[in-house]
Amino acid sequence: MEAIRVVLFVCHFTALAVLLCGLVAGRDPLAKASVAVLGAAAAMLVTGVLLVVVQVARDLPVNGPKVAVKAGLAVAVLGCALWARRSARDGGPRLWAGGLTIANAVVAMAWN
Ligand code: HEM
């Protein structure tokens, strides 16, 4: 079970790196978001939920309110990534996706 947790954790962080890099990469900051950004946003959500499942399976305590806030923010990030994929020439959704991702990382680190 610990090995599964480590693999999921690495995937969680890899998705975070791909998401943030994908949002700032590219010569045109107003271009459509890439498929990688979309996939990474979905992967954050999926690996996050699976990390919680592993915690429950190990009978470890789960911080319910924190998980709910993280899940809500992750869904919002995925929505913004979809929006950024569809609307070229509009930097708004890309900025929202990046800002909410950083907000979620702050929640993850600062809320114990
Ligand atoms: C944009 C979305 C997300 C970002 C930026 C993010 C960021 C992070 C970061 C920086 C950590 C490491 C700090 C820590 O251990 O607390 C972490 C861990 C964790 N995240 Fe996320 N997260 C996201 C989505 C989610 C979602 C949707 C869930 C669950 C519904 C989730 C559940 C977890 C859990 C359970 C851990 C702790 C893993 C462990 O220590 O074994 N995350 N996340």
Tell me about this structure.
The structure is a single chain. By secondary structure, the protein is an all-alpha fold. Helix content is 79%, strand content 0%. It contains four helices and no strands. It has helices at residues 2-24, 35-57, 64-86, 92-110. The relative contact order is 0.17. The model has no long low-confidence stretch (mean pLDDT 93). Protoporphyrin IX containing FE (HEM) is lined by residues 5, 9, 12, 16, 44-45, 48-49, 51-52, 55, 67, 70-71, 74, 77, 101, 104-105, 108-109.
Q: How many separate domains?
A: 1
Number of strands: 0
Q: DSSP helix count?
A: 4
Oligomer: single chain
Shape, principal axes of CA atoms = elongated
**Average pLDDT value?**
93
Rg, rounded, reads 15 Å
Tell me the strand percentage band.
under 5%
Tell me the major beta sheet: none
* Helix residue percentage: over 70%
Regions with pLDDT < 50 over 5+ consecutive residues? none
Q: Which small compounds were modeled alongside the protein?
A: protoporphyrin IX containing FE
- Euclidean distance between termini CA atoms: 22 Å
Q: What order do the SSEs take from the amino end to the carboxyl end, as H and E?
A: HHHH
Judged by helices, strands and strand pairing, the structural class is mainly alpha
